[in-house]
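Would you mind writing out the residues of a protein together with its fold in token form for me to study?
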Amino acid sequence: MAAVDYRSLAAGIVQEVGGEENIASVTHCATRLRLRLRDESKADKGGVEKLPGVITVMRAGGQFQVVVGNNVPTVYAELGKITKLTGEDSPADGVEGPKGSFLNRFIDLISSIFQPMVWPLAGAGLLKAFLSMATQFGWLNPQSQTYVILAAAADALFYFLPLFLAVTAAKRFKTNQFTSMAIAGALVYPSIVALGAAGAPVSFAGLPVVMMNYTSSVIPIIVAVWLQGYLERFLNKVLPSALRNFTTPLLTILIMVPLVLMTVGPISTYAAQGISGGITALFGLAPWLAGALMGGFWQVFVLFGLHWGFVPILTNDLATQGYSLLTGPLMPAVLAQAAATLAVFFRTRNAARREVAGPGALSGFLAGITEPAIYGVNLPLKKPFYFGLAGGAIGGAIASSGGSAASSFVFPSLLALPAYSTIGNFTLLLIGTGAAVVIAFTLTFLFGPRETAIPAEAVQPNETDLLDPVTHDASLATGTARQGATSGTASGTAVATLPAGTATATEVTGTVEVLTPVDGHAVALAEVADKVFASEAMGKGVGIVPTGGHIYAPISGTVKAAMKSGHAYGIKSHDGVEVLVHIGIDTVQLEGRGFSPAVTRGDQVQAGDLLAVVDLDVVAEAGYDPTVLMVITNTAQLTGVVPVAQGVVTHGQPAVTVEI
């Protein structure tokens, strides 16, 4: 399938089924596109089957099902680019976009854009923490040239964050990354920063421009690149090919930079001013409530760049009265996020996540730098971020009830506590901060995600993009997956060594035994009720009529596909064996009802690890066949694939023998 032109395949399918107007809806499962046609007589089944990349076509359940195998997400994404059928813009990596609430989709988007720079963020944040400690204890003179150079090294990533985000956002939204960087560069250009700092009226072509500081900002450049994608696609469509290469970037930069400055800037500025003004007024009426709002939402304000609206008030308060009540709840807000990250460090079984959480928590506690913690740990996991907000709200209410405030402009951190010691009730500040830390840490440790174990050496910075950007084939750079205990024989075939109740992979060079994923009764693939699987078009394997609802990994490796409906999982072993575990026939129609996934795409699993739990009663009541199908999808590339499971089977027993 690597040589298949997926855009052409998607277009061919649309054409052969009678055009876009004949398609009422389209979805996909693990192996096939599922189209509901307005008039099935217009569809040329034979024509679709002749398209390169199509395995077969079947009509079932009122659907026109086009079987394309493991690359179905890519074909579905291409449909989204050439039609309006999918109802969403497909991500750049060719994977169907995240579903769920708007908040979850937003968090997933931000997390995926930040993921490639998690390690640099952690490193730079740690350097800032060490510099803060060095100056606090007098080890380094902050006026020295040495400090200036080291500070530049530590601050550059955060100061020029829009430039880095432009690159990853460009990949996500399918734009020209250098044009995106040019837009971001304009936002942090020194003269633009100076215009924002001056506070004087600014205009562009006679139109007023409300300036804001875009350094370290997040949302403005992401919105800009998102809009850039639409503009570029329009220009590439209407401009003549002789002018397109240089005219598209020219017009994009010319339009986008003023547009962002005139729209995103004012929206952010007015929103920030309204929020900051309201909270400032609330401090005079109910300090504890203002502190709760400030402590609970401060990190959200930072996320949207709204925190800049508080800076003028903070600066003015410090200049006129020597302190600002707005700073009191910031200490609990920041340290609560650091505490949640620390809890993840202790709780997670994911070694790669732990390596980010450690430096992230340290930089948060010591320097008040929470970007590595939030974008690398808390926000992707969601619950730790929420628990950090809860801790910040309660701690902020306590701190502000005593009138706590900083007497200088500092980043809230443990090393900055002396700046809070002279204003208000310092004891209540410590109590509030301690409460925030305890609440965030405890909630995260008790209720935060445990995560599947992933070796640190198996993770690369850009693993959220599991599809190769050129070939769109599934690819994940990992280290060697850890295997279970095996005992080799003289013939070179591995024999399972299975302690009671334990399933282990049994892989050696030359021969791999793929294990049974569920308790039940094995049946030949030819006997299952789905003709695509029965014909072995998807590969050789076995069917198991399940007697239990716990589905286990049949092999150690990387989860390359995990349907959000929970009914199908694709695993690729480090030996290159690709296994599909499909729970039930047509159970995608249940849309996740009755399924509880235990893994997500990109996880490392060991043979015998839990993949999912299915409620067989729900499947039966809905009228679907619960047979679990396990096939070796790259059978054609292997020397031999021999099903061996027969009769009553237990998960962990050999099901298929594969010759590499």
Notes: Residues 241-285 form the longest helix (45 residues).
